[in-house]
Amino acid sequence: MDYINLLPNHVLTKIFGNLSPGMTKSCALVCKRWDEIIGTTSELMKRYQLNLEDIEEHEMKKAMKIQRKHQRVLADWSKSSLNVILRHKLQFLTFTEFEYTPVKLSTLVETLNNLPSLKYFDANLLTLKKSENCLNQVSTNIEQLKCAVEVIGIFACCTVRKLKIYSYRSRSFNKQMNYSIFNFLKTQKDLEELELIGKQFSELFILPDFIVLKFPLKVLKYSSCTPFTHYKEFIKFLNQHKRTLTSLEVDYSTEPQFGIELIHKFALENLINLKHFKIGHLRDNHQISYHELTDSTSITKNVESLAIKARSTDMNENKRFLNMFPNIKKLNFDKSENDEELLCCISEICVNIERLEVSSLDKDFNNPKILFPKLKELIINHDGGDISVFITRHSNTLEKISFKEFDYFPSSFSKSVLSCPNLNYLELNLGELSFASIVMIYSISSRSKPFKLVFTRTRPSFDSNFVTQHYTFNFPEDIAIFKDFWDENECD
User: Fold this and answer.
1) In this structure, are residues 48 and 72 in contact, taking their beta carbons and an 8 Å threshold?
2) Rounded to whole angstroms, how far apart are CA atoms 460 and 148?
3) Inter-axis angle of helices 32-40 and 21-28, to 10 degrees?
4) Overall average pLDDT of the 290-308 stretch
5) Average pLDDT, whole number, for the chain?
6) Do residues 473 and 455 touch, judged by C-beta distance below 8 A?
7) Rounded to an integer, what distance in angstroms lies between the CA atom of residue 281 and that of residue 14?
8) Rounded to whole angstroms, how far apart are CA atoms 30 and 92?
9) Is the per-residue pLDDT at 199 higher than 90?
10) What number of H helices and E strands is found in the chain?
């Protein structure tokens, strides 16, 4: 007798909820009832993303027949993809890059208004040749919004908690766009996160009514490749939110200036709940005298996450700065050449670091003095050389390793990763899987401990463009699925 099918739906839902995404997918193939339970349970469907990017027409027709209601969709712009999108009860929608026309803008508004459950929308670098007016507006209350500044006006009726605005087309940027941002923000009473990325946003802070806007802002990120000219107004804006801000990042990639340093000084003296702090560029001739900061220690001792993009040539100044943050657990370090001495200082002072993200690992990290005794997570953004020595040195504590952009995966990396007995998460972003990386994956997956592999690769397509593919495997249960993936892709 099939006792398991005597269980009521709510009990099966509980069981499926304790399985990995890979096992849940397998259960959906067992019978029609299980597939229906999984496909109609929102908590289970949150795990899956329907990818409609760069798929052919016959595959799109198959997608139209999908019965289960997906909550996450990644799509490019086409009539077919919009038809598929409207069939699902979406909470997360991401569009890949394309250039708008007024007709597309109106179609987008109409599509979003037909998705009442939508909570997250990413218009992934949507671009226009010029700012377009749209008579219609989005009425869905999107909680997390990412879009280009040119289209912010269509979301004026939304109530947003997290907002990210892009501006990469400096020639098309004008004062009217700043007023569009202001008109949008003045209606936001629940905004907690604000991120401004691109050019010309510093002009926003000279609007007198903007700097007195107040909402429960917790996270503020400002990144630009143009000089920051209105730092006094920016400081006034910070002062409005000094009791709520827990995270501050101010960064730019051009010649640094004194105003940014004053912003840092204000933050370290006044943002009483600061937990995450990112340093932009600092010049030696305008270096902050950190030992002169008043009442900063009481604030900086609570900071748990720190991002360092610049450093002083005066090592004593660097030490003085690092000593202000005795409880750092997460460090993002933008490495440059000949940083060995600074890295030794960091490891000596910041002994509680559990998560380390670096732009690259190179020979500077081979110094045995560079040791983080509590390091659990390591993220390397670019290939910078042989990092196996550093990984082996931290093998007893490392649980998560992410390789973001690597051209290849040599055998020395594999050996060092295999030396980590507590590793449960590995992320690879490669052009191709090498034989060494496959041997490593099989070796780790054979352990009794659960292990998650997130694999991304970018490959050329038939039309000379590049297609990015994402895969997630949960071992040991997904070992058979991984073998099938390996065979299908004819990997050697």
Assistant:
1) yes
2) 28
3) 130
4) 68
5) 76
6) yes
7) 50
8) 27
9) no
10) 17, 18
Strand partners for 379? 357, 402
Residue among 329, 334, 323, 281 nearest 300 (CA): 323
* Contact predicate 154/180, CB 8 Å: no
- For 59, counting Cβ atoms within 10 Å of its Cβ (0-12 exposed, 13-18 middle, 19+ buried), the class is exposed
Mean pLDDT, range 35-44, rounded to an integer: 74
Q: Which fold has domain 1-47?
A: Monooxygenase (1.20.1280)
103-157 confidence digits (pLDDT tens): 778 888 888 888 888 888 887 655 555 555 556 788 888 889 988 887 888 888 8
Domain ranges of the chain: 1-47, 329-492
| Residue 283 pLDDT | 42
Amino acid residing at 404: K
Q: How far apart are CA 92 and CA 107, in angstroms?
A: 18
Among 315, 324, 321, 312, which Cα is nearest to 344's? 315
Q: What is the rounded average pLDDT of the residues 447-466?
A: 63
Which of residues 401 and 481 earns the better pLDDT score? 401
How far apart CA 106 and CA 136 sit, in angstroms, is 7
CA distances from 36 to 25, 69, 117, 176 (A): 12, 10, 20, 50
Contact in structure between 73 and 101 (CB atoms under 8 Å):
no
Confidence of residue 173 (pLDDT cuts 50, 70, 90): low
* Residue labelled with tokens 């690992």: 361
Cis peptide before 256 (omega within 30 of 0): no
Choose among 155, 148, 108: nearest CA to 124.
148
**What is the model's pTM?**
0.72
Residue 313's CB is within 10 A of a number of other CB atoms, namely: 8
How much is the average pLDDT of 159-169? 83
Phi, psi of 360 (to 5 degrees): -165, 155
Phi, psi of 202 (to 5 degrees): -65, -25
